[in-house]
Amino acid sequence: MSEHAEQDVWAVMADQRIAMLTVEEEGRLVSRPMASLARPEENHVYFVTRLDAKVGEIGGSAPVNLAYADTHKNTYLSVSGTARTSQDRAKLRELWSMWVEAWLPQGPDGDDVALITVEPEEAKLWDATSSNLLYAGKVLKAVATQRPPGGGRIEEVAMGGGGDARSRSAIGGRAVSDKAPDAETARAYQDAMEGSEGAELPSLGGPSA
């Protein structure tokens, strides 16, 4: 169990800002990128937007998913919760900024300005590694040993401050190691990179679970 798992979830949301908000529309799941405003002290994530059917009518609620990704750090986050749409003018004014103004010049009192409030309920955080280079070394070692690379930390977190965090580091039900590649593997990877004649480090896919 990770003592700071929930804080880590909020830190990712605060750092990334842009979330893929997934809702159900006419029986289909639809995702769209939106700027999020994380407020851990309120256990809410806010989206200031135009009034439409993203999560239903004013006063209604709907289940949603928020997805965040940092490909540079190989960190990925999925948050499930309940969203409500309102035109809470006081909260809109509190959250308003020049960045919101750029997209919604009518201001927080505009007739078509709305607030989506998401209350997170569960989250899953993948923290594969601190660097692409280290992860590339793991991939190289996996090819040599015919064993899947270590996927790093996976946190399943009950949000809201009242739930335990269940942590596991496994792929396909098997425990994996988060240790750095050994010296021989690291040298092999360095030789391979030096022989690439300036080629960029390949884009590495995220962890699977």
UniProtKB/TrEMBL annotation:
Gene3D superfamilies assigned: Electron Transport, Fmn-binding Protein, Chain A
Domain of life (superkingdom): Bacteria
Regions of compositional bias (Basic and acidic residues) in chain numbering: 176-185
Pfam families: Pyrid_ox_like (PF16242)
Region entry Disordered, spans: 159-209
PANTHER family hit by this protein: PROTEIN BLI-3
Protein name as it appears in the record: Pyridoxamine 5'-phosphate oxidase
Organism of this sequence: Sphingomonas parva
